[in-house]
Amino acid sequence: EDDLELLDAYESDAQATALVRPAPVLAIVGRPNVGKSTLVNRILGRREAVVEDVPGVTRDRVRYGAEWGGRPLTLVDTGGWDIDVRGMSSRIAGQAEIAVSQSDAVLLVVDVTTGVTSTDEHVVRMLRRAGKPVILTANKVDDERGEIQAAELWALGLGEPRTVSAMHGRGVADLLDVIMETLPEFSEVDDAEEPGGPRRIALVGRPNVGKSSLLNHLAKEERVIVDNVAGTTRDPVDQVVELGGKPWKFVDTAGIKKRARQASGADYYASLRTQTALERAELALVLLEANEPLSEQDIRIVRSATEAGRALVLAFNKWDLVDEERRHWLGREIEKDLAHVEWAPRVNISAKTGRHADKLVPAMEHALKSWDMRIPTSRLNAFLGELVAANPHPVRGGKQPRILFGTQVSSRPPHIVVFTTGFLDPGYRRFILRRLRETFDFTGTPIQLGMRIRE
Ligand code: GDP
Ligand code: GDP
């Protein structure tokens, strides 16, 4: 059940290293239908990214691990980019903008068969502001004729347009050489965006659970909800609120209300907003409705938060509506459906009356402290030594895997790797996790436990 916390064994030292020094990130941007997915598939050498023949089909940012010349890179496919359409497409543009800010270089894909559009020009301006290296690619250059059309793209002022046919593979190897020359060896993206700034919170939960009410209560004012126009800075969608004497940044708060009431695409929109907010946040404050049974959607949102590796606090809202009987059932539901996050602090609040809203801050602080925690290698190995001595791994087929040593390779969230002489049972790994949580107090953070088998 809590497989999220158990990673598979790493196949190579390079893989284990990549956890500490992540591969460089290439964001792929461009208007819808220029062939971004086709190019991603070509680079991956398989059909994995979704290719749609419908202009304007939107999709999430998707990350793929790729390799060229024995070097790893991460591709981020950003979906369509169309600034002329408001609403959902501008949200996707926002996604692309975030992807750019979290990349080491950008591949701008233009379709030679349609040429440069005003959207392309707008994108170029945005990319200039972002200050990342940009590689310009002219796609759909299926033959010599396209080369001539591609020459027009010099006008974008991004240097030489690299011509490819994503569909037929023409020019893609040369393009990859240029990409690898442009990218640093390891990612230099600082994912601790705005160091020293306020902690970043994603307030998430299904529609009508009380997110806006809570935010309004915390901010103690009716907020004006700003419409984030694509291409402008993404900051207006965030809101900084002072709580317990400290500023906290609630990310993508504009997305909380915007369009939530619109019938068509509302679910898609809500889940997209949840994903974006989670990716930018350090902690997920998941709001659940205390007076109604937990729904599948609730569980899915909790799962997205842990999968995104965020610190987690569960807030049961509308507590003013909860009676004794409901309280009883809620306890049962939590045991059944939220057992995999029993480590997350739970707070019972009412956005309406303000009940216990002051308990949110200590819960969030505790969770973030765990999320940031680094256990010194010596302490970790003392712990593992004692644990293994008292509870050795069961013998399997005459063999007994031994734990050689362990190390915490990263934090935010904590990621621990144990080096072993054989495959550890999932049950035994869960046991290690449980003991880790008890010993070091990892309240409020998911933990990743990986295994590296030494022959
Ligand atoms: P995206 O929206 O930018 O990801 O575009 P897709 O990868 O979904 O491609 C849009 C359409 O362009 C699809 O019908 C592709 O088959 C087509 N396409 C992509 N690359 C090429 C190419 O190199 N040459 C030609 N002729 N068509 C292409
Ligand atoms: P959102 O869609 O998650 O932003 O939810 P809203 O903040 O718009 O709240 C949806 C409805 O629930 C509104 O009618 C609120 O007044 C109501 N609501 C929110 N919090 C509470 C609460 O703590 N108690 C009660 N009784 N109602 C609440």
From TrEMBL:
Gene3D superfamilies: 3.30.300.20, P-loop containing nucleotide triphosphate hydrolases. The keyword Repeat applies. InterPro entries: AAA+_ATPase (IPR003593), G_ENGA (IPR031166), GTP-bd (IPR006073), GTPase_Der (IPR016484), KH_dom-like (IPR032859), KH_dom-like_a/b (IPR015946), P-loop_NTPase (IPR027417), Small_GTP-bd (IPR005225). GO terms for biological process: ribosome biogenesis. SMART domains: AAA (SM00382). Associates with the 50S ribosomal subunit. This is GTPase Der. It comes from Brevibacterium yomogidense. The gene is der.
